[in-house]
Amino acid sequence: MSKSLDRDSLQQVAPKLAELTQQVLFGDIWKRAVLSPRERSLITLATLSALGHEQQLPWHLEFAQQNGLSREELVELFTHQAFYAGWPAAVTALALLQQENN
């Protein structure tokens, strides 16, 4: 698996996408009051793992913990998700969570 682009490398590769990511995604969408950052992290992790977007999961796992989700809650998210998105998606996400905590 290749490494996901971070903010700096995205800026170098696609400056406009980096700008939109900062201004629209993190400057607006993530700050909207209807859902908390914690809830947005749950939705994001469930979506990324269900769609098999493994490259973005490590960053979002760390971000979710910054947004107040415990490791136990993340494990529960992926356990629950196994029944809706499939075992492979859940187990892949759990493996990445385990790597983040080692």
UniProtKB/TrEMBL annotation:
Ranges for domain Carboxymuconolactone decarboxylase-like come to: 15-98
Which domain of life does the protein's organism represent?
Bacteria
Q: Which InterPro entries match?
A: 4CMD/NDH-1_regulator (IPR052512), AhpD-like (IPR029032), CMD-like (IPR003779)
In Swiss-Prot or TrEMBL terms, this protein is called: 4-carboxymuconolactone decarboxylase
